[in-house]
Amino acid sequence: MAILIIGGLLWSEYHLVFLISLAQLLLINVFLWFIVIRSTFQKEQASVVDLEKFKLAVDNASDHIIITDPDGIIVYANKCAEKITGYPIKEIIGNRPSLWGKQMPKEFYEKLWRIIKEDKIVFTGELKNKRKNGEIYVAEVSISPIFNNNGDVIFFVGIERDITLLKETSDAKTEFVSVASHQLRTPLTSIKWLTELLLKNRENNLNEKQKEALKEINMSNDRIINLINDLLSISKIEEGKFKFLNLTEIEMTRLVNEVVKEFKLIAENRKIDFKALITLPEDYTLNIDEEKIRQAMSNLISNAIKYSKSEGGKVSVSAEVKDDEFVFSVKDNGIGILMKDQRRLFEKFFRADNATLTQTEGTGLGLFIVKSYIEAHGGKIWFESEENKGTTFYFSIKEWFFEAKIYFFDENVL
Asked: Does the global pTM surpass 0.85?
């Protein structure tokens, strides 16, 4: 074994190996720290680059984007905000959106402020704003609250899109549909009246073939009338959902019974087991548009009967009060709704593939109209379905939806 004398101390080769190992470990640690520091630096540099990319993307977005503090003071605005409003970014920063707003009723801003500030959820909607040159424009708006780790709102992100041209085009289309539908309604009503008069065969001079032809004419005429009625309903919906509600206090047991009675004979003719269970409190009333809710109920029952099994079909209707809500449901054991079609079921003009195969006739407007009517009443609609086993549709309306509620806020914020 080799021995070294260093500073008067005896060192063996084992001691030297140990010292060399320590030196190597120290060198490795230094190297690892260097790698970690370099990696951290690179990540920070990458984060800065990513942030710059994100800012560049937002700055050049085609939508007007602003960020405000919790009090509504604007701390950031992109280039499109200047382009749409006409106000320079320097003038926008430090101001409030009321700089180009204040064109809607006070109640609109009360609701908006309550949703984002108190309910702390995203607000989406349409509103009118004014450019710096005084021009009024229509905007589609989304305002999202952003929270810290404690759940407190630290700022709001507002995204606005100028839809003035799109709105004008849509309004023109809606007006055309409305006028055309009204113009078609009169001759179609006359055709219906005349065919029904001929079918009575008072002179007893029609053979069976002629009667069948008149029945076909009458049925086709009814289908066109129903389509026109649907188009008229859609034109009213697109005018604004609260503009077409004629609210009155309605006794709901009476209404449900009347709707159910309308379909009893139809169900019997199709040999469908049709039942209704109404468990509403005595003299239970809701403040609703009777015509619209009647149409919603009728549409759901009609669909259930239409898509039920040809043999052994069952349809059950129920109406109850649950958690201070009126809940109406229609259940069938029919074809069900394909999973791939369920997310699109309430879209305008959409029909599920299996429904098209079962019933070739249909416009795909019924459920869109039902959903619009229910949501216009502050309600919600949903369904449960399984292919080849059936579907249950539900809708609910809160008893207190139309009660007045006052909120206090700074009206200059928006």
From this structure: no
